[in-house]
Amino acid sequence: MYMRHWLQSPSSLTHGNIIKREIFSKRTEDPTDEEGAILRYVDSFSRCYLEPRIASVPTALDDRQLVFYVVDGTGIFEAGDLKQEVGEGDAILVPPGLTHVLHNPENTPLEFLILEEIIPDGVEAPRKDALIRNYRERPLGQGHWTHLVHPIFGQDDGLVVLHSVLVVRIEAMQTPDTHGHGPDMDEVWYMLEGNGIHVVSRNVYRQMPGDAVSVASSNPGHTLINDTDEPLKTFYFARYDR
Ligand SMILES: [Fe+2]
């Protein structure tokens, strides 16, 4: 279990002009592992932005696919014949080998998250084209008593290592059930709006916007309690141990 804010994470560049703060990365056998190297399967989770009126450099990554999630601002995403405006709540699945560009045409920064999953040897990524979907497009579900779940992408959409990418809301003054996870998985919650108390095993975190909490492992469990008068909204990703 672990909490880290993106401000605590080092900055680097990706796609030429995208400013990246890598919050979590995949752990390695190296004992001098960097802070935040706690993921078991997913390779990287970052908070990123593009400055106003700046475009990324056209980029194709052969060994991995990416999931972008737009937090704030408006951008233009281009890949092949696809050219589409994206904004808050839009997610983009970019398969390996696809040259893509993200452009910020506005006078305000474009803020987004990037997930990276390296395609394992011998596995072929199922998608060849990019997929754009807003989290509001698919039916809302409910689980763990009070998780209001907006599905974004699953393995039917072309995820390979990840099983689930969601937006999860919890209403004011609500608690989900307490449930536990073993160490052989990834489950991360990133606070987008509002805040709550995330209890993970014996740790108690006040999870504010920009904080990411990893809950694998959590024994006997974890619970994100909304103890405030406003709904909270999170970006969630997981690879389950099934
Ligand atoms: Fe969980």
General description of the model:
- The chain has strands at 2-5, 11-14, 18-26, 37-39, 44-50, 54-55, 64-72, 75-79, 82-86, 90-94, 101-104, 110-118, 131-134, 141-143, 147-154, 164-170, 179-181, 186-193, 196-200, 203-207, 211-214, 218-225, 232-239.
- The two termini are 20 Å apart.
- The protein has two domains: 2-134, Sandwich (Jelly Rolls), CATH 2.60.120; 137-239, Jelly Rolls.
- The chain is mainly beta and 242 residues long.
- The chain has no helices and 23 strands.
- The radius of gyration is 17 Å and the shape is globular.
- The mean pLDDT is 96.
- The strands form four sheets. Strands 2, 3, 4, 5, 7, 10, 12 and 13 form an eight-stranded mixed beta sheet that branches. A seven-stranded antiparallel beta sheet has the order 1-21-18-23-16-15-14, with no helix packed on it. It has a four-stranded antiparallel beta sheet with strand order 6-11-8-9, with no helix packed on it.
- Helices cover 0% and strands 53% of the residues.
- The structure holds fe (ii) ion.
